[in-house]
Amino acid sequence: MTTVRLPLFPLNSVLYPGLVLPLNIFEERYRAMMRELLKTPEDEPRRFAVVAIRDGHEVAPSAPGMPDPTALPERGPTAGFGDDPAKAFHTVGCIADAATIRERDNGTFEVLATGTSRVRLLSLDTTGPFLVADLEELPEAPGDEAGALAEGVLRAFRQYQKRLAGARERSLSTGADLPDEPAVVSYLVAAAMMLDTPAKQRLLQAPDTASRLRDELKLLRAESAIIRSLPSLPASELTRGPTSLN
């Protein structure tokens, strides 16, 4: 078992390997994290781990009205995550490599990171200015018939795109060809589909690529059928992820 110890960044979204993650950092705990990462030489990866929040708040209350006008301010690395932070997070996450960390004049940060590999959360260290986690690296096994499944998922995904574009009464164009490597296909489609966080989390923690692709094929067919029945269904950009409030 290969383990790593990295800063932990909980989010209200799921990060997949190969996907880009923009972050706007303003909370002090995450500003401290970025200052620490900037100590890493530029020719070395500046890595942290991202996990999806199961029960808690991405942004901790810091003053009345942020975000709850009745909330009392919270401080420290576990603010917003309850008495047992380990239970507030999903246990499978993704390592992020910060290609860009830019500090603004006001001390906040603009960060652009990319997911690299899956990890399982083993334990938390809450004694410092930000959360640090011991993590087990999870290999990506192909599973049975991953190549054929990837082809089926790509066909279903293109149909999903067309139906979604029709629901928005416009044509949807993609500037680049979709990949054909099964694992890459599985993660790109998982990120692009309009699913809630629990569903996206289930896809992240699938035991192998083939299992993830099978689940995506079922979801794509079901979602396409729903869109066909509800042509006015609103949608967001397929390949644009939300920028974290942090």
Helix percentage: 25-40%
Spans of at least 5 consecutive residues whose pLDDT stays below 50 are 167-175, 233-243
> What global shape is seen?
globular
Query: Strand content of the residues, in percent?
Result: 15-25%
Q: What distance separates the N and C termini?
A: 32 Å
Largest sheet: 5 strands, mixed, barrel
Query: Within the largest sheet, what's the order of strands?
Result: 1-3-4-5-6
User: Which value, in Å, is the CA radius of gyration?
Assistant: 19 Å
Count, helices:
5
Mean pLDDT: 85
Protein name: LON peptidase substrate-binding domain-containing protein
InterPro entries: Lon_prtase_N, Lon_prtase_N_sf, PUA-like_sf
Pfam families: LON_substr_bdg (PF02190)
Organism: Streptomyces ossamyceticus
Give a written overview of the molecule.
With 246 residues, the chain is an alpha+beta fold. The longest helix is centred in the middle third of the chain and has 22 residues. The relative contact order is 0.20.
How are the secondary structure elements laid out?
Blueprint: E1 3-11, E2 20-25, H1 28-37, E3 47-52, E4 92-103, E5 109-125, E6 132-137, H2 146-167, H3 182-192, H4 197-204, H5 209-229
Parallel strand pairs: 1-3
Antiparallel strand pairs: 1-6, 2-5, 3-4, 4-5, 5-6
Helix pairs in contact: 2-3, 2-5, 3-5
Pfam families: LON_substr_bdg (PF02190)
Protein name: LON peptidase substrate-binding domain-containing protein
Domain Lon N-terminal: 6-224
Descriptors for this entry?
five-stranded mixed β-barrel; 246 residues; alpha+beta; globular; 6 strands; 5 helices
